[in-house]
């Protein structure tokens, strides 16, 4: 009966996992929030009113941050930390009469500097080991940005030194050339894959098993661990059936008609992917199996009634892929992954020979929801 416990354990492994949820959104900018890639600054970008209690000739109000974002591309959902920066046109201003070219270059240099730190932030967030590292990185780069803007303002007298402004503008433009915008990080997929699945199935038997037992309806669970195209497939099937007719086995086990019974089928096999495209993956498999039929053990007289045999199994697995997911936000143990959700159809065959009964064969078909993944590493 130990195999029943193992079967139940594998089935329990497919219960929903308790996970720490991360709120994801979509960055939506207002028309007055201008990003660097929208083009160089113009006088019309400064629509705010200057305060009365300042000697500054202009001010560029900006924001630098990140947003946990969920994006969609074809049938793929992408989770990532999306950085953003922009100037607020309503809060940025030129003092009346000071709308000259030098001051515009000064603010363009500041805008370039903001974009440089945006790119640095995105690059570092792609490579964090834990989500808790994101906020400190943002704070550090924001402090660096504030310091550089303050130093630039001091060195150019808030944009009044035309030569200094021009030199710094060239400097920031060179930085933009040497720090390219990393739209997508360089990824490397692990050779190791993993999957869990669960669902329902149906079995049919030949021989004396088919004669004495009705075809069971099943609960099915499985775990896959793969390397390249090969995979270890561990599957547990728990079937619910009853006897068709009374029979006696080995003159010691009496099974009455309509006796509630259970079928346990455990399989450990090796599969090999022969087809793996955008929507369909197919892998035949072969390996070991344990086939057991046992009476309802809550009735004392039938407690020891069981048929058990270890044999081999063979079959075919076909996964119809529903959706893909790429998670660039590090999760448990800092793992990033490429995952798939698919409908799995599994066909298997296991012969079974029990003393006192004719040789039988158990055929099983199962439909499960399969969740598979592969670890991603950022270079």
Automatic annotation (TrEMBL):
Q: Does the keyword Signal apply?
A: yes
Keywords in alphabetical order = Signal
The source's superkingdom equals Bacteria
| Signal peptide from the UniProt entry | 1-21
Q: What is this protein called?
A: Outer membrane beta-barrel protein
Q: Which organism is this protein's natural source?
A: Adhaeribacter soli
The major lineage groups are: Bacteria, Pseudomonadati, Bacteroidota, Cytophagia, Cytophagales
